[in-house]
Amino acid sequence: MEKKVVVVCGAVGFLGLLSAALAFAAEATRVKAGDVQAPQPGQCSYPKSPALLLGLTSAIALMMAQAVINTVAGCICCSRNPHPSDKNWTVALISFILSWVAFIISFLLLLTGAALNDQRGQESMYFGGYCYVVKPGVFSGGAVLSLASVALGIVYYVALSSSKSVRPMGGQDGVVMVGQPVVVPPQSTQPVFVHEDTYNRQQFP
C-alpha cells in the first residue's frame, strides 16, 4: 500500500473517531427531562449543557473527514469505469454511495441534537404545555453513523486506488494476448558474394 494511502486513511480515521467520541460525549451531557424545571406556569428552565458545542464540533469533524476523503479520491461518478469486470471499482462505487447516505443522516442527527440543546435559561412552553428535550439516542445514532460513514469512505478510497493501479497487459479492450514468443534473427547487412559457377553462363552472339 502506498504511503499516501496510509496517511490519508490515518487522518480520515482520526477525524472519524474524534467525531464519534464527541457525539457520545454530547449524548452523555445532553439536557434530560429530569434537568428541566418549571419555576412558573408556562415557563421551562433549562440548565447549561456542553452538548451544543460537542454536537457542533462532532458534525464539523465528520464534515472534514468526508471532504478530505472525497477531495483526495475524487468523485467516482464523474468518470466511467474503464474495466467493467474490475471488482475493486464495483466495491468503490457501493462504498461511495453508502458512505454519503450514512454521512447525511449522521450530519442531520448531530445538527438536530445540537440545535435542540441550544436552550438556556427560561423558555416559554411549546404548544400543549410541554418542555421539549432531545430524545435518547440522537447523538449516539449520529456517532455510530459517523463511524460507518468514515469506514465506508476509507474502503471507497482504498478500492478506488487499487482499481486505478490495475493496468491491462496489452491487447485491445483490456484483453491479454497469450502466445509463445518468437525470436526473429537479425538481418545481416554484410554483402553476399556469389561464385561465378553458381549460375549457368551463356554467351550471346
Topology (elements, then pairings):
Layout: H1 3-29, E1 43-46, H2 51-73, H3 87-116, E2 121-124, H4 138-165
Antiparallel strand pairs: 1-2
For the largest sheet, list the strands in their spatial order: 1-2
Report the helical percentage.
40-55%
Q: Which structural class is indicated by helix and strand composition?
A: mainly alpha
Termini Cα gap: 86 Å
Shape: elongated
Order of helices and strands: HEHHEH
The largest sheet, given as strand count, sense and whether it forms a barrel, is:
2 strands, antiparallel
- Rg, rounded, reads 34 Å
Question: Your description of this structure?
Answer:
It is a single chain. The chain has 205 residues and is mainly alpha-helical. Helix content is 53%, strand content 4%. The protein contains four helices and two strands; from the N terminus they run H-E-H-H-E-H. The chain has helices at 3-29, 51-73, 87-116, 138-165; strands spanning 43-46, 121-124. A two-stranded antiparallel sheet has the order 1-2. The longest helix has 30 residues, at 87-116. The chain is elongated and about 70 Å long. The model is unreliable at 167-178 (pLDDT under 50).
